[in-house]
Predict the 3D structure of the following.
Amino acid sequence: MNKNTANPDGSMPNGINPSPVQPTNSTDKNDKKSFFVGNVCILIAVIFWGVNVSVTKALIPEWTSAFGIIILRLVGGAILMWITSLFIHCAKIQKHDWLKLILGGAIGLFLFIFLFILSLKYGDPIDISIIMTLPPIFVILIGVIFLKQRPSWIEYLGVLVSFIGAAIVILDGGKGKTGSDNLLGDILAIVSTICYAFYLVILEGPSKTYKPITMLRWVFLFSAIPALVLIPFSLHQPIFHTSQAVPWIEAAFILFCVTYAAYFLVEPAIKDIGSELVSIYQYLLPVFATISAVLMGLSQLKWMQVVAMIIIVAGMVLTTIGKKKRKNP
């Protein structure tokens, strides 16, 4: 046995002191690398989400129905998650978490995807992308109503400001011509963000207990079960009768990049740069959605959309500041 081996308490035997460790720059380099990797991961994920708005809009209804996209994301996503789980050790789900996973999948994720896709069928993609920045606001409201949380007055102000921005989107959206019914699309988008906020709240506990794939394989399975009901209405899709590559590439992008890869990019990002910085990147979603929508000829940016986007982001910043002050008075 090496006589210089440390005791269990960390001290050296026989009065021997360890040699002083010379400071190195390796820790700083690793921290910088992790920070860079975390930012790249969440940036790629947000680009996926932003471009997804335009790609989904492009596929509906020319190449597939809204139901077809819903089945692709939920049933296809469940299959990919379960295949992945075969190669990763997954912990056993604790008994008290099953109800949360069922509700998070069958209500939270299913209704979120269902209503989000329907909103794109009717609404303007830029309007929808702006509305999709609202989930943090509804998370706060759910906490107040159901969890008896007490946000600060700054957080309440942020909620109010964000709702003003959303109201501008809805009122101005009724005048647009991009969607078949912009007002209906905006309303469906808002309800979908409430469902996503419910998803975030109810799965907050399990997400801290299990690896992403351990939780997501069950959440997607429970969301795929109600989605199976839509299959009889989605058997005859134009995309099945085309030899063009573009719609198939777009469908593959939605399944593999948006539905699958993005979930695994968020986890290392939260680990490396923190959840607060990750949430700030959500504000860039309308930017990438707008750029892709304009480039694809799906919509034209209006100045009222820019105003609404700025107001909603300002509201989000206020809620973030209020949350920080409440946690660190």
